[in-house]
């Protein structure tokens, strides 16, 4: 004890000090520890004597002091810390790190000691400090006036001291010559965690959160993988918050993105756990020893910033004790034993149930309301909201950035601008912005970095290093920064593959990637999948690989910057042409019946290839691709899109002067004419038909000319010039027969059959169609439509032969639906509806009419030459059923999807099975159904015939 016998009374400031890690220091120094301890005591006593503090107890490396003045107590601690720091110790490792705690309270000494709870509170304040740190209570801070020269007190917030139920506000003494950065105080906080405090609501992810919780509860190491911006960190934090009560020793969040040196990973974790380096001992050993007896969950975030060092540390922690569990987020897995890898999916873009919004739309709604000052999007914007989230592939960061754009754009405007994903989402975000979350216990990112560096005994980071560290926080402020974070970690082969994959619009399989690169892509592809830049989606026959749209946009930029765009996109155009060719061939390479279903999955790729052909590639190659989609465009209600692509390709030809053979131009103009007719542009239809004829004659190809001339009747029919159209059809058929290319004139045969049906020349129509059947069967691109059966069914209906009509029409419907000819299937449904109405099943007829019209409306097409006939049949059916019953049945049909409507039609009972079937009865044929000449419908004339 001090020789001073006078102990202060009243408001007394108590000071406790001790050496942090004294046991480890003694083991390290051995016999050299005693001189260090003596020097430590001498320096502290000299300080106390100078400030008139009373030394009550000295035991080992500890001091217990009392001061009658709070300012004098703080001055003593400041002087002592400076003296300890400036003293020349035998070695750097031998320097003792002394922690000091002060508290001021009312106390009276008795018998040379204090019996007061204020003493215990002071001891707990000291226990909360770290070596080199001076902490004081609020009571001391309020009475320390004035503070020592150049000193200030840093408010560390409220903390619960061990053994006390209330919370104490702690302050740290800050002054020149003292360390500033320390881990959080060692206090008994009620909630043991440092999880980031979120400033936005957490939307959706209920199923994912439940699944991830199950994995964490069952396994000691779970790694959440996903692309940048997929929501890995947010989901991990939300789950950690749920699990706080499960882990008595806490849930601790460690942001590896703040660590720029692999050697500092362990120090970053130590800083979170409140540990300081021990002299002569690796930080990893200190961590393992601390964690071994505890039950806690450590959330390692953004581990791909330092993957190797983080993996090594996690492995040591898990091996050191069974109570530690790790939840990691990364863009690539560790490959550690026992690691469970869970890949986070994008937010669901499809609604889960009737009336509920998908998670992606719900997130966009929530963030849009925030961006617009609380105003929710209008109901009219719902469709555009869904377009936006689909275009962004449900990527949470992209949706958050998109919502910010809605401060200046409508949802429709945003949806239209997303062809430039990066430019739209990153607009106005060049300047650094504050991080989106607040850390629960740290100050800012720079403070954390300083702390880690100080803990490792390093100097604070340079301004350049700080810029790197800030970029780790800011990597989620733009989509480009997010993807760049991963791209910089790729080797040359993986980076090149990522760039070249950007040319694909849809998922691709392994043979396609091999075809693109003309090399084995397995190694670089594995890297991209491991780093979550490409998603591998398994299915029965293998895997497909795809990039999220924002990543694809980034890779496309890199492709152009690398000077590889021309080569990569030309290669993609060649692949697209090859894929189109394969769609028309069987496994043995021979032609097969064209199925438009084979073209549906290629549409996105072909559009991407066409875009390149129209802007930077070969227009000739683009015309060939467009020809492959000829029927698909019209059957999917996209004739206008086909016209627009052709116009763009014509513009490219004019721009480059590329030579296009006359035969290929004739085919393109003929296709354009058909599209224009289907789109109701009859003047354009005739104009391009004439251009096609001129180019075909110039080419000198009889078959091509026959095909072009066979289409000449279409604009005449569209303009209601039926007699002239019939004359043209007969001339073309005769000429083609003479040239022995009658198969190329099949279009004219079908047009003539329709015109004969229209004016009641049923026998001639049936004879013409019978001759056309083998020709149609020999042409793979046309036989799936079964136009002969469709037209024979119409002839049978006109004759009143329900049995023949039923059989022909069902054959046509099965083939058309089986091969994807949806527009033609609508005509067949209408014909079967007539068959039902005449055959005694009027309700089914009304339903089929409603279904056919609803589908046709969705395809933006009209019934062509049959339009008046369908209208007359519906009017007659409405008169038979009555308005109410007809409308109800028609409405029921309109609610059916095309597949459901086809199933209903195929289920119609065969007439021979009816009790009153007359197929085999003797006597005259039943009278033909009325077949009046079609009246001019209201509005514009109907579009082209059904086989166009």
Automatic annotation (TrEMBL):
Region (Disordered): 918-948
Xref: PROSITE patterns: GUANYLATE_CYCLASE_2
Domain spans labelled Guanylate cyclase: 13-126
InterPro entries named in the record: A/G_cyclase, HTH_77, Nucleotide_cyclase, P-loop_NTPase, TPR-like_helical_dom_sf
Pfam families registered for this protein in UniProt: Guanylate_cyc (PF00211), HTH_77 (PF25872)
Bias (Pro residues): 924-935
Gene3D superfamilies (alphabetical): Nucleotide cyclase, P-loop containing nucleotide triphosphate hydrolases
Gene Ontology biological process: cyclic nucleotide biosynthetic process; intracellular signal transduction
GO MF, any single term: adenylate cyclase activity
SUPFAM superfamilies in the cross-refs: Nucleotide cyclase, P-loop containing nucleoside triphosphate hydrolases, TPR-like
PANTHER family recorded: HTH-TYPE TRANSCRIPTIONAL REGULATOR RV0890C-RELATED, REGULATOR-RELATED
Name used for this protein in its record: Predicted ATPase
